Amino acid sequence: DVKVTQSSRYLVKRTGEKVFLECVQDMDHENMFWYRQDPGLGLRLIYFSYDVKMKEKGDIPEGYSVSREKKERFSLILESASTNQTSMYLCASSPSTGAYEQYFGPGTRLTVT
Amino acid sequence: LAKTTQPISMDSYEGQEVNITCSHNNIATNDYITWYQQFPSQGPRFIIQGYKTKVTNEVASLFIPADRKSSTLSLPRVSLSDTAVYYCLAPGKSTFGDGTTLTVKP
Known about the structure:
Order of helices and strands of chain B: EEEEEEEEEE
Helix content of chain B: under 10%
Structural class of chain B: mainly beta
Shape of chain B: globular
Number of strands of chain A: 11
Number of helices of chain A: 0
Shape of chain A: globular
Number of helices of chain B: 0
Largest sheet of chain B: 5 strands, antiparallel
Oligomer: heterodimer
Strand content of chain B: over 45%
Largest interface: A-B, 25 and 22 residues
Distance between the termini of chain B: 39 Å
Distance between the termini of chain A: 37 Å
Radius of gyration of chain B: 13 Å
Structural class of chain A: mainly beta
């Protein structure tokens, strides 16, 4: 089975801190994604990556950056956390060609105080 | 980015068939359409995907018309445990819509 793991299930950070959210997948997938999910707003795409060192902006990239140095790992970085970044963050991966089924991790609930 | 549109919510009763329709704008020629199910405090889980016409698996059926501008997820004989949020996604460089909250009542 495909497994997507995220470094933390729950995280509490202070305003202004630099925050790293890590995601690792074990199926050699080319594509990886970061979403945030807020009540009533569904899943919103922050960034995605098609390959190592490649990244593209999604719908809401402001305040975030990403890093993909290895194929299996995709990191989301909050350079200076703010309270409006309190949210559930979901990572996903998918194969590059043909069907695009995305496999999701369990999510990280980030609270910025 | 391609975006999808679904009804915000639907109610049903146990044992009924539920159909959820999704509209896709700017879907790419080679994009598949996928549907996901999400329970509270969990990541979305893949249900079914298709390119055109009809696809059926052990969980659901997916109907896609020839113009591929919409798709319909069909859940046969729903149970209380099917209460969840359902998302359609036209993948590739696309993003999820707001999802449909399905509530199944006894």
